[in-house]
């Protein structure tokens, strides 16, 4: 009978053990919460936004730098052109003056011609007509010859300073184109000149 009790106990214990093992608490696998995922996504979006803003700032800085450089270059070009026009106007407006019945260059005339030679060296494409002029005293033929000697005197001085002869031409107007129509020494002194015209 003991054997029956053992069998019976076995029949009751084994299923109870099996039941308790099968009912053991299972480990629950938790899914990452949507809160964690959305926080990571938000952080990534924020980082991307900050990166884009930094790139936009850099692009704006570069555009401003290029605009400033362009504006500075434009101002420099305008200043250079203005200076060039002033130098050109000075070159053509300053005459070399001569004494009565004379084609010799005095000290003041030589200094002015040195400045003109410097300008001609700076602008090697410029060609010049040197006009010889006289006051109204003397005959037309004499004044034409004197005007030619004055123009040639100025030309020779410029050539001696290194300006190419091919860039300089001369013409005499004698008394035909006075600067001052007066009939006195002051007017005549203005008319005894070599004038410079750019071709």
What key phrases describe this protein's structure?
199 residues, alpha+beta, 4-stranded mixed β-sheet
What does this structure look like?
- Strands 1-4-2-3 form a 4-stranded mixed sheet.
- Helices cover 63% and strands 11% of the residues.
- It starts with a helix and ends with a strand.
- The longest helix is centred in the first third of the chain and has 60 residues.
- The protein is of the alpha+beta class and 199 residues long.
- β2, α4 and β3 form a beta-alpha-beta unit.
- 19% of the residues are buried.
- It has 2 domains: 48 residues; 103 residues, OmpA-like domain (60s Ribosomal Protein L30, Chain: A), CATH 3.30.1330.60.
- The chain contains 5 helices and 4 strands.
Summarize, please.
The protein is α+β, with helices and mostly antiparallel strands and 199 residues long. It has helices spanning 2-22, 34-93, 107-122, 140-160, 185-191, and strands at residues 96-97, 128-133, 168-174, 193-198. It folds into 2 domains: 46-93; 96-198, 2-Layer Sandwich (60s Ribosomal Protein L30, Chain: A), CATH 3.30.1330.
């Amino acid at each position: 009978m003991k054997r029956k009790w053992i069998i019976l106990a076995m029949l009751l214990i084994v299923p109870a053990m099996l039941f308790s093992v099968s009912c053991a608490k299972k480990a629950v696998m938790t899914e990452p919460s949507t809160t964690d995922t959305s926080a990571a996504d938000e952080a990534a979006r924020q980082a991307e936004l900050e990166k884009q803003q930094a790139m936009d700032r850099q692009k704006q800085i570069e555009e401003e730098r290029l605009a400033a450089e362009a504006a500075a270059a434009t101002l420099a070009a305008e200043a250079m052109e203005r200076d060039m026009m002033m130098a050109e106007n000075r070159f053509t407006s300053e005459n070399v003056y001569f004494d009565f019945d004379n084609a010799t260059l005095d000290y003041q005339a030589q200094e002015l011609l040195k400045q003109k030679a410097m300008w001609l060296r700076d602008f090697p494409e410029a060609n010049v007509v040197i006009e010889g002029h006289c006051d109204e005293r003397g005959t037309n033929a004499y004044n034409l010859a004197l005007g030619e000697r004055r123009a040639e005197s100025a030309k020779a001085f410029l050539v001696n300073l290194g300006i190419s002869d091919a860039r300089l031409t001369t013409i005499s107007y004698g008394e035909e184109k006075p600067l001052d129509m007066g009939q006195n020494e002051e007017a005549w002194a203005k008319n005894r000149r070599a004038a410079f015209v750019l071709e």
